[in-house]
Amino acid sequence: MKEAKGTALDVGLLAACQAVEHYEIARYGSLREWAKDLGHDEAHKLLSEILDQEKATNNKLTNLAVTSINKTSARSRAA
């Protein structure tokens, strides 16, 4: 099998990064709600902040895919 390069590598790395973000969003979301249920207000607040950061990172990765990598890939296929 040939190694990925160029746009294929970019797409693969982006997919891996987003997979990590989704994993983290799921975990922080669950931990945040657990902290809330247990009455740990400070932990709930901190986990909410972290969760917001993870969601923002995921949105940036999605935006990168839509505005850059996917368009580059489409141009490469058209050429």
**Percent of residues in helical segments?**
over 70%
Order of helices and strands: HH
The number of strands is 0
State the low-pLDDT regions, or none. Answer: none
- By DSSP (H or I, 4+ residues per run), the number of helices equals 2
Task: Provide the gyration radius in Å.
Answer: 17 Å
Can you summarize the main beta sheet? none
Q: Classify the secondary structure makeup into a structural class.
A: mainly alpha
- Estimate the strand proportion: under 5%
How far the N terminus sits from the C terminus, by CA atoms, comes to 24 Å
Mean pLDDT across every amino acid position: 86
Please tell me what the overall shape is: elongated
Fold and architecture overview:
- By secondary structure, this protein is mainly α.
- The chain has a domain of about 25 residues.
- About 90% of the residues lie in helices and about 0% in strands.
- It contains two helices and no strands.
- Helix 1 packs antiparallel against helix 2.
- It starts with 5 loop residues before the first helix and ends with a helix.
